[in-house]
Structures are given as structure tokens and as C-alpha cells.
Amino acid sequence: MTSHSVDPSTLAEQLPAGVLVTDPDILAGYRHDRAFDPDAAVPLALVRATSTADVQTTLRWAHENRVPVVPRGAGTSLSGGSGGLADGIVLSTEKMRDIKIDPATRTAVAQPGLLNAEVKAAAAEHDLWYPPDPSSFEICSIGGNAATNAGGLCCVKYGVTSDYVLGLEVVLADGTAVRLGGPRLKDVAGLSLTKLFVGSEGTLGVITEVTLRLIPPQPPASTMVATFGSVEAAADAVIAITATLRPAMLEFMDRTTINAVEDALRMDLDRGAEAMLIARSDAPGVAAAHEIEVMVRACRDAGAHDVFDTSDPDEGDAFAAARRMAIPAVERLGSLLLEDVGVPLPMLPTLVAGVAEIATAMR
Ligand SMILES: Cc1cc2nc3c(=O)[nH]c(=O)nc-3n(C[C@H](O)[C@H](O)[C@H](O)COP(=O)(O)OP(=O)(O)OC[C@H]3O[C@@H](n4cnc5c(N)ncnc54)[C@H](O)[C@@H]3O)c2cc1C
Q1: Is 329 a member of any domain?
Q2: Could you tell me the distance, in angstroms and rounded to a whole number, from the CA of residue 361 to the centre of ligand 1?
Q3: Rounded to two decimals, what is the model's pTM?
Q4: 135 lines ligand 1 (CB under 6 A)
Q5: For the chain: N or C, fewer Cβ within 10 A?
Q6: Are 202 and 147 in contact (CB under 8 A)?
């Protein structure tokens, strides 16, 4: 039996009212994620799960009826992972938005649909910090972050999502819910199934709860910005900096990106520069000034045209915001091909064939 012959109303009967959506206008909004893959299709139905039980019911039904399921958080994937399938169900976690913070153990237990920025804000209410900060932090979900092992601007010093996920509740393809890891740092006995799930992009199951490690907040950062006449010179500076210290942020933009961001933000970036580095130090007290000094020297030694530094956090934030703007700004120039993110499994043969073709052409 192909899934085309399956009637999703038999699933609707098993879910709370309104959880299953078949309105074509609403379904159309779940065709694409941010990768805008032309092969993505309007799904057969949408489930907006409100609980782990809804996810279990949906996966059990899909398993029995051989219907493919695409888990979806906020749909900001740049690799097409949350786009729809014509004969499949999109299982959205957008309505699962609870969070509990335990300041005593410095942990958060969050449902997957909460946005990364909302997790940060909830932690901040207890004077705690959830570090991972993908550039999309205001629009992506914590479940999506765990599913993609999202990194971000501060990952050079503070690590990526997997460094903060202590435990998970996941629902497997047959509808079974399991708990992996737990709230204690030492909840690691046995094979690290938690690590296996983080970054598995929905291929192993649906994440319905995430237990996160929180840390004390980051001190205000000082910032350095340097522009270069070549990408190689900027790369030399990066190598010199990272050989000496671990900045709180070390981000690169090439000429195309600098110009695209300048078009979008008009903040007087150097349009003629071939490369720009933005680095930050959040070392305590005078150590920050020392780290900035080391980074300024490394950039000058590598031949930077211009080096600017500031201890004003707002001024520094403006440059971090410029870097976060890179993808939306470059997207305005046309189709965007990104190469640092996972590849959806159906695209893998095409990718491998493409790489083989390029390799042959280069011989
Ligand atoms: C402007 C912009 C900037 C970005 N910057 C960064 C960046 O700096 N670093 C970075 O890593 N990424 C970045 N991204 C990519 C994207 O935001 C991240 O991958 C993010 O983690 C995806 O979260 P989401 O909630 O949108 O997930 P979705 O796009 O909804 O899903 C992503 C993948 O995870 C799966 N998934 C989602 N939720 C679950 C769940 N609960 N259980 C199991 N599987 C699930 C989906 O099936 C899909 O494969 C950026 C994207 C944009 C548009």
C-alpha cells in the first residue's frame, strides 16, 4: 500500500481536536524550510503536536501505515531537512513550548518548540546563561538546535549544542518514548545515545524534551574588528590568534559578504576589503584588554589594513549583529549554496555524483 492511499483522518480521530491540519493553505506554509529546496512538496498533512503523547500517536500511526514523517521545529534549516514530502506528514513541535529552570542544579528542561532566544531569556531570569547562539537564535527552536547540533558565534570558546545537552526524551519511529542521559553531569553510563541523537536531524526519532546545562552569564565582551587585503592574510591572523588564546568569538566575512551586509545595514563597513575578522574577548577584568591587544597585534602582523577595537558592548554587538546578518544579506543576492551543513539523505547520491564529476573534471 502506498501512503497516497492513506486517509489522515484516521489519525485525526486519535489526536486532540485541531492537532491534525489538512487545510491546503496552511499546509502550503510547511512545504519549504529556509533552504527553499524546489523538490520539497506540500505535505499530506500537518501535525502540530501539543505533547509527547501526540508525537507518540502520530509516529505509531505513521509506522503502521508506512507514511514518512518529517519532524519540524521552526523550519530555519539551511539543508532542506524540514521541508515537506508529498506523501508524508510534517510533525511540528511549535506548540510544545514549556520550560523549567532549576537554578540549584543550573539546568533547564525545555520542550522542543521553544526558540533558542526564549531559552536564553528564561535562563537569564535566574542569572544563568545558555551559550549556543546560532545566528538564527531568534527564529530557530531548541529542538531543531539539538537535532542539528547547532553551533554559533560563541562556539569557538563555549562549544556547540551537544556540549550543553545533558539528556533527552525522544520518541522512536514505532511510537515508543525513551529517556536518554539525565540532569546530572555524571548521567553518562553506557553508550552515549544522547550524543548520538544530538545532530541526527530527525533520522532516529523525534526529540520531545531537552535537558540543558546552564552556566553563569558571560561578562561583557570587548571587540576587535580588522580588515584585510586578502583572505590568506585574514587566515594567517586566525592561526596566530588561535595558537595563543581562545577568543569568545572569531568570525570571518569575505568581500561579497561584507558588501551584502553593508547593502543591508549601511554601517560603513569597508567595501574594498577582501576579508574582515570580528573577534571578541570576555575574559575577566584586565585580561580582556590583554586578549584584545594580542589579537590586534596578530592582525597587524598579518598585514591588516585597518584594526579597530572597543570595550563598549553595544558597539561590539553591532558588529556581531552584522555577522549574524550574513546569510539573510547574501540570500538577497540570489540562490545560496551552503556547504557547512548536513545533507538530507535523499540528496546524498546527487551530491556524491556531483563531487565525483568535479573531481573528474579537475584531473
Ligand atoms: C539566518 C540563518 C542563520 C543561521 N545560522 C546558523 C548558525 O550560526 N549555526 C547553525 O548551526 N545553524 C544556523 N542556521 C541553520 C538553522 O537555524 C539551524 O540548523 C537550527 O538549529 C534549526 O532549527 P529549527 O528549529 O529551525 O529546525 P528545523 O529547520 O525545523 O529542522 C532542522 C532539522 O532538525 C529536524 N528536527 C527539528 N526538530 C526536531 C525534533 N524535535 N526532533 C527531531 N528532529 C527534529 C528536522 O527534521 C530537520 O532535519 C541558520 C539559519 C538561518 C536561516
Answers
A1: no
A2: 34
A3: 0.91
A4: yes
A5: C
A6: yes
